[in-house]
Amino acid sequence: MFISDGNSSIPLEGSWSPRRDDLVVGSIEGVRNNVYTVNLSHFGRGLIIGGKYERYSFEPNDVIEAKVKDIEDRSTVILAYPRPLQGGITISVKPSKIPRVIGKENTMVNQISELTETRIVAGKNGLVWIKGRHVSLAMMAISIIESEAHTSGLTNRIKALLESELNKK
Q1: Which regions of 14-167 does DSSP assign to beta strands (E)?
Q2: Are 124 and 72 in contact (CB under 8 A)?
Q3: What are the tens digits of pLDDT across the range 70-98?
Q4: Could you give the domains of the chain?
Q5: Helix 107-116 to helix 135-147 angle, to the nearest 10 degrees?
Q6: Most exposed of 43, 61, 132, 148 (fewest Cβ within 10 Å)?
Q7: What is the largest CA-CA distance in the chain?
Q8: How many Cβ atoms sit within 10 Å of the Cβ of residue 99?
Q9: Cα–Cα dist 167/158, whole Å
């Protein structure tokens, strides 16, 4: 099933199929011979092949954001441009709902981020990292988006809800 705004369609169910340059969030599972294994949750695993020009080194359980550089097979992708995501929390969202969490031209995620004073990284693989002042409100908004992705007027409803909740504090 899909929803459409006339210009594009967003699937309501389904899994993530990696594409080059997709932004993902994952956690380092292991390190061996300068190759990092990354758990990408709904998809499988990613590999970061380190080199002498890498800016960061990672340890198991570190949370990172990276871009898909290449697709090896149905369960492994090669990642590039990894960056650490320190602190914060990671939540899981159905990958099919991530485009709705992000919104057209990042409108939804930027709105949530601004209103809740958080930094949000939404990976196309279904993992969302959140850090900042009102993390629980950001999580609540993302949860509502996931369950109501098929409805219209969601951006305005989320804004009104967040403003209402923030006014209570």
Answers
A1: 23-32, 35-39, 45-49, 63-73, 76-84, 89-92, 118-122, 127-132
A2: no
A3: 998 777 899 999 999 999 999 999 999 99
A4: 23-84 (2.40.50.140), 87-168 (3.30.1370.10)
A5: 150
A6: 61
A7: 52
A8: 18
A9: 14
